[in-house]
Write a structure and sequence with these properties.
Elements (H helix, E strand, L loop, with lengths): L1 H105 L2 H16 L4 H15 L3 H9 L2 H11 L16 H28 L27 H101 L9 H18 L20 H70 L9 H15 L6 H43 L19 H67 L2 H19 L12 H187 L11 H5 L13 H12 L4
């Protein structure tokens, strides 16, 4: 029973210690598993966030592609409308040019010059449309030409009909056109063309009516006070104006349809913009969802930290429990020390203790049999010891083997843990290497972006007027992109996309460079035509497109555009100078013609006055006055003439003077006519040159418009490149920030892992120390328990012996009472016998205690009686008393 109690108590203590060790190991495993789960959850959260950010990047790319597509459609539509406008302008210009050529062939020079001068004044803005309408209105009212008014009203739309009617219905010629509301440039050009056609039509009517009355004019009708000289023209078709009006109406219908198409395209663009707006809202919602999930992840991390703190609190409670157990152990040790005082008196139970040791060590061996089998050959034996020391030696040896095996297992687990730690450190080192490589890649990308920004910086001189808009777009893009955080994979995708875009733009840049070279050559040819003296100073365009080097192509294109710009500016200046020189020549010729016309008028007036004076007054009294007047007129005209003075016959003198004056006037008139003819020829030549210069100016204007379009395209490309560069810079900065955050987080996790590892190492060392202490305490406790069990067994045996002694004492007291009674009876009998028996038959002496003890008195008989058996039993129990 005592063995069972001691065995059960030792078993409970060892079970408690093993359960505590298992619980601590289990808690450590649970903590490591929780940390692993949290790390996996954190990794999954990072992956989800990366996927969401990649999805945001894809949405951004789709948004950019949609915007580029809309811009491309808008540019194509603008190009189509410009081409249509250019073609319509070309056709209309060709028709007007043909009509003007026919008119110039049919009309005389002065009338055509006056008409062209009026139209040019209207086209250049010196005369307004309202002024031309007043002129036409006066002509129409004077001639009664009402059909043109109705046709002019048909030309106008509903919004412009009041304008045209207000212009045409004014009867007061003093009203200016400034009182009328302004028109757009397109409608101004249309009404200008319509008024020009009406003016030509009215002028045809005027010239035809003038041609019918040509025979009824006087001989000197060419010097009358009319503004224009009589002309001979061919009959023009009267339906030309109606056809022109129909063509203009068709053109208006086409423009209306084009405007409707533009409105439809605008509505489509609005729908696309709304769709993009919805996509942007969805992207913002997804960004908010990502932020919410990130907050949830942070909250979960905080909860994990709280749980870890709770686990640490539980661990501290377990440590307190262990301290209580140590206190209990101290109490047990103290009790065992008290029990150890009875060690010497309990040597009898050494065999029992040895058997308990053997059974206990066998149980312990069975418990650790999962690591190693210790029960094959029994306990280890020694030749030095025997008995209980040999058993203790075997138990200690076996315990040492078990402890060594446990230490080996702990060392192997530590080795595995160190290997796992080394693998973790290796993985952290690899991650650091990858991060450094990514940083190097990002720095390379940054350098490439810096180089591209330096290349693009040269193009920013052409877009200074758009800096405000670009800054606003950059601010909006920065505000929009600050919320987006791109991963390194997103950067690689963007870089590959940019490279593909650059590869796609390379042939377009090569074609543009070729066209720039062609434009440069054409401008050189124009410069050779305009200024042959400086054509030798021009250098040919030596920029050649390269298939591989995009930087050289961009630099060459920029240099070519600058050269084209400088050359076009020089050509424009030279053309302007030539046109101004030709204009001055034309002006001088016009002044000469007007001067000659005035001289002709003066000569005609002088001749008329001379003839009238000669026919109305006396010859003798009026001759001197006539000669004076003629002399003054000739002096005014620059002809040196003086009347003859002398003693000659007055009639002959007068007649000769008249003939001389007439011949001089005839010579003057012939000379004037020759000069007029020469001036007409020179004017025609100058007009041909002006037409040539106008064609050259138109060609240069077209080339300049193309250059402007190319410049706008380059500006657009520069803007897109700036946006791409800014986007890349923002992506690089966000990536750097993200990398720094991840680096800091990884460092923090590594520090936390190291701290946890150190804590686990400290806990493991403490647990190992506690295990060693517990093992020592178990050994001491087992010893003390064995001593206590032995003492308890001895006490129980002593109690049983005491009880047995008490029972024997009671039995002895009863027997002694009976014996005393028997002795008193025997004494009575002996007293009675003494009187009767003789004295020789009595023994020599008797000692009653020896008789009570079963001894015979000297000389007495030996008899086996119950009293003797009782005495023997009492003798056997005497040592126990």
């Amino acid at each position: 029973m005592a063995e069972r109690a001691a065995e059960s108590s030792s078993r409970t203590i060892s079970d408690e210690l093993s359960s505590q060790i298992v619980d601590s190991e289990h808690n450590a495993k649970e903590t490591s598993e929780k940390l692993a789960k949290k790390r996996e959850e954190h990794q999954r959260t990072r992956q989800d966030r990366a996927e969401k950010e990649a999805e945001l990047i894809r949405l951004k790319e789709a948004h950019a592609a949609e915007i580029s597509r809309l811009e491309k459609e808008k540019a194509e539509y603008g190009t189509l409308m410009r081409n249509r406008g250019v073609e319509a302008g070309k056709e209309l210009g060709k028709e007007e040019f043909k009509n003007s050529e026919e008119m110039e062939r049919d009309l005389e020079f002065n009338t055509c010059l006056n008409l062209r001068w009026t139209i040019d004044r209207v086209g250049s803005g010196l005369y307004g449309v309202g002024d031309l309408a007043l002129i036409l209105h006066n002509k129409i009212v004077r001639l009664g030409f009402d059909a043109s008014i109705s046709e002019m009203r048909v030309l106008a739309d509903d919004d412009e009909r009041d304008y045209v009617e207000g212009v045409l219905d004014r009867s007061d010629p003093q009203i200016t056109a400034s009182a009328l509301p302004p028109l757009s440039r397109e409608r101004r050009a249309e009404l200008q063309r319509a008024f020009m056609d009406m003016f030509l039509y009215i002028y045809f009517y005027i010239t035809m009516s003038g041609a019918g009355d040509e025979e009824n004019d006087a001989v000197l009708s060419d010097v009358e006070a009319d503004d224009l000289a009589p002309i001979n023209i061919k009959t023009a078709p009267e339906n030309m104006s109606v056809e022109k009006f129909k063509e203009i109406l068709a053109e208006l219908d086409r423009e209306r349809r084009a405007r409707e198409a533009a409105e439809n395209a605008k509505s489509d663009l609005q729908v696309s913009f709304n769709r993009l707006k919805v996509l942007c809202h969805e992207a913002i919602k997804k960004r908010d969802e990502c932020s919410r999930q990130r907050d949830e992840t942070l909250r979960e991390k905080e909860e994990a930290l709280k749980k870890l703190e709770k686990a640490s609190a539980d661990l501290s409670e377990e440590i307190k429990l262990k301290e209580d157990i140590t206190k209990q152990k101290d109490e047990i040790v103290r009790q065992l020390e008290e029990v150890g005082k009875a060690r010497e008196s309990n040597r009898i139970e050494l065999e029992t203790g040895s058997s308990m040791l053997v059974s206990g060590i066998e149980k312990i061996s069975r418990k650790v049999s999962s690591y190693k089998d210790f029960g094959g050959n029994g306990l280890p034996k020694s030749s030095k010891y025997s008995g209980l020391p040999a058993v203790a030696y075997g138990v200690v040896k076996r315990t040492n083997e078990i402890v060594e095996e446990l230490l080996y297992q702990i060392e192997s687990s530590n080795k595995l843990r160190n290997e796992a730690r080394e693998q973790l450190d290796q993985r952290n080192y690899e991650i650091a290497i990858e991060v450094s490589q990514l940083e190097a890649t990002i720095s390379g990308l940054r350098e490439e972006v810096a180089e591209r920004s330096k290349e693009i910086e040269s193009l920013r001189q052409l877009v200074d007027m758009k800096d405000a808009r670009v800054a606003e777009l950059e601010r909006e893009s920065s505000e929009r992109l600050e919320s987006m955080k791109g991963e390194i994979s997103g950067l690689s995708v963007l870089v590959s996309e940019n490279e593909s875009k650059i590869e796609a733009q390379r042939p377009m840049l090569i074609n543009q460079l070729n066209y720039v070279s062609k434009v440069h050559n054409e401008l050189c040819e124009v410069m050779k035509i305009v200024d042959a003296d400086k054509s030798s100073e021009l250098s040919e365009y030596l920029f050649v497109a390269q298939e591989t080097n995009m930087e050289e192509n961009i630099k060459a294109c920029l240099a070519g555009m600058e050269s084209v710009y400088e050359l076009s500016k020089t050509v424009v200046e030279k053309t302007r100078k030539v046109v101004e020189e030709r204009g001055r020549e034309v002006k001088s010729l016009n002044e000469t013609v007007s001067r000659l016309v005035k001289e002709k008028e003066k000569i005609g007036s002088l001749l008329r006055s001379t003839l009238s004076q000669r026919m109305s007054v006396d010859l003798s009294s009026k001759t001197n006055q006539l000669f004076k007047v003629a002399e003054n007129g000739l002096k005014e005209t620059g002809i040196g003439f003086q009347a003859f003075k002398g003693e000659v016959d007055p009639d002959e003198t007068e007649q000769s003077e008249v003939y001389a004056l007439a011949s001089a006037l005839e010579n003057i008139i012939k000379q004037s006519q020759l000069e007029i003819i020469e001036l007409q020829h020179s004017v025609e030549e100058i007009r041909a040159e002006l037409n040539l210069y106008k064609e050259l100016a138109d060609a240069q204007a077209k080339e300049l418009s193309q250059c402007k379009l190319q410049v706008e395209e380059l500006e657009e490309k520069e803007r897109v490149a700036n946006e791409n560069v800014e986007g890349l810079m923002m992506d690089v900065t966000s990536a750097e920030e993200e990398i720094m955050r991840w680096k800091v987080a990884a460092q923090q996790e590594a520090d936390a892992g190291k701290a946890v590892e150190q804590e686990f190492v400290a806990q493991l060392a403490a647990a190992r120390q506690e295990l060693e202490e517990a093992r020592q305490a178990v050994i001491e406790t087992e010893k003390k328990l064995r001593f206590k069990e032995e003492t308890a067994l001895a006490a129980m045996a002593a109690r049983d012996a005491a009880e047995k002694s008490l029972r024997l004492a009671d039995m002895r007291a009863a027997r002694l009472r009976d014996r005393v009674e028997e002795l008193t009876r025997q004494l009575d009998e002996l007293d009675t016998r003494e009187a009767t028996a003789s004295g020789l038959s009595r023994p020599r002496y008797i000692c009653w205690p020896w008789q009570w003890l079963g001894l015979n008195y000297v000389g007495g008989p030996r008899s086996e009686t119950p009293l003797q058996a009782a005495a023997n039993e009492m003798e056997l129990s005497e040592p126990l008393i």
